[in-house]
Each structure stands twice: as structure tokens, then as C-alpha cells.
Amino acid sequence: MKINLLYALCLLFMFSCRSAKDLAYFKDLPDNAVYSEKISNETEPKIQPDDLLNITVSSLNPEANALFNKGVLITPSSTSTGVSSSRAGEEGYLVDKDGNIEFPVLGKVNVGGLTKQQAKAKLMAELQNYLKDPSVNIRFINFRVTVIGEVKNPSTFTIPSEKINVLEALGLAGDMTSYGKRENVLLIREENGVRKLARLDLNSKEVLNSPYFYLQQNDVVYVEPNKIRTIQATTNTRNISLLLSVISVTTLIISRLYR
Q1: Strand ranges of the sheet holding 93-94, from the earlier edge strand across to the other edge
Q2: Residue 70 phi/psi, 5° resolution?
Q3: Listed residue (6, 10, 16) closest to 229, CA to CA
Q4: Are 62 and 240 in contact (CB under 8 A)?
Q5: Hey, which of 84, 85, 148, 184 would disulfide with 154, CB 3.0 to 4.6 Å?
Q6: What pLDDT score does 99 carry?
Q7: What is the pLDDT of residue 82?
Q8: What pTM does this model have?
Q9: DSSP E strands, 71-114
Q10: How high is the pLDDT of residue 196?
Q11: Among 10-14, 41-45, 102-106, 245-249, whose mean pLDDT is lowest?
């Protein structure tokens, strides 16, 4: 009877804990001091509907520039130093469902599905008819990613650099809790009217080459709970009280048997 009780307590302890190995990222990395591989999956974000763009135009004629910058005078020197560029297009240009923006003088311009560099080249080509040697700068105002689930600080984060990978996003959220499934992180992405769901195994170094390792604007990262957390969440207060009572009685019996 003593052995059975001790065995039951050991099982209870084992199922209530996770090994350190389960909490590690990239368990299959070699033990070499340095490991390197060529980056082949880095992609540039493409402009999507509902993106908010900051667009500034500069040329050798500040007065003409104002026509394309909502009345703000922009010179090449001010653009390079960042002066006034944040004021021009401060409210941003909203990309509609068809990928268009309403741009001063030019009217409706389709930029949906283009990278920033492609959109910049398209605007510069159209501005050649109005400005001499025009320069265009484009930034995402609302480049955001959301991290939810088994992380310490779930939230939506604005990314000023417009470049982030899934590990950096988890870092912003305070990393996973010990109950998060590192081998089955869910990524939700909406692109060109299609919603994609991808699974990422952060226990494997192969995730570094995944096309979903680098996040795009409005991506959602969901860390699923493991079985232990699921059991905890679905167990009601009565069952918890019962379990505590059983443990207390078992402890009392063991203490009396060893007197």
C-alpha cells in the first residue's frame, strides 16, 4: 500500500511539470560554437487594403512640392534629415479595398500588391510630368502584428522598422509561458483577400527558413496551450477542491504509515 501511494504521488508530480527540454527553442541545432546558413526567406512587405501610408514628395521646387504634400513645403535636404517629412501626409493615405489611394493632383493611384520600392517607382514616374527630378519616400504608418495566447504580455505591437520575425514578436510579448506549445505556433495572415493559417515548429531550426518566419503587417501569432493548461482551464473549482482534498488525505495517510 505504501508503494502504491508513493507511486501515485510520483505520477501526479510528473504530469504537473514539464521538462526543461520541452521549453527549449531549436532543439535540433548542432552543438557547434557557430552555425551559419544563407538567408533565403526574407521578403519585403507588400501594400495591402486598409494599409495607412505616409508618402512625401520632394524636388528642387519647394513650392511645387507643397501641391503633393498637403501644403507642407518639402525640400530635398529636409527629406534627408527627416524635417517636416512626418508632417507631410501625417494623416496618411488609406489604401482602399481595390488597392487604390487618392493622391493630390494625380488622383487615384493603384499601389495594392506592390512593395514600397515598386510603389515609389510608380509615383515617381507619374510625378515626372509635374516636377523636375522628383523623389518619393513611403512608410507604413500602421505596420502592426498581434501576439496572443500563452505569452506573458499578449498585445498588438506597432513596428516602426517594418521588419520583424516571429521570435522578435514573441520577445515583444514577453516570450511564451511554460504552457505554450513551442512545436505548434499558429500564424494567421490575410493577403490578397485570402486568409492563410500556418503552423510553425519553434523546436526545429527549419523554422528559420519558413516563408512565415518573417511577419507581414497585420499578422496574428497565436501560441496554443498545451494539454496541462487545457486541463487546468476546463477543470472547475469543485474538481480542484476535490483534488486538493485527495492530496491532503493521501499525505495524511502516508505520514501515519511512516510513524
Answers
A1: 93-94, 52-58, 135-140
A2: 55, 40
A3: 16
A4: no
A5: 148
A6: 94
A7: 47
A8: 0.72
A9: 93-94, 100-103, 107-110
A10: 94
A11: 10-14
